[in-house]
Amino acid sequence: MKYILVGLLLAIPALAEWQWEGREEVRRARMEAMREVSRARSDARRELYQAQREVRRSMYEARREAERETRQARDEWSREMRRAAREWRDAWR
Predict the structure, then answer these.
(1) Assigned domain for 15 exists
(2) Looking at residue 22, what is its pLDDT?
């Protein structure tokens, strides 16, 4: 009985050390998983910001092109109206 008790007393610290090693592995794995999640979040955030910049840029370009086309149409309409007015004046003379 005495030998069993001595054996247990010697084995308990070894078992405790084994348990701590397991906890350390779990802690390391958890920290690695948290780093991976953080990396994934930052990548997703970066992609979101890039997509937002691209949308803003394309909207700006579309707005600028629409303004240019509107200006051209207005100028063309003005030219046509001046030409029509000139033709009318010439026709009445």
Answers:
(1) no
(2) 72
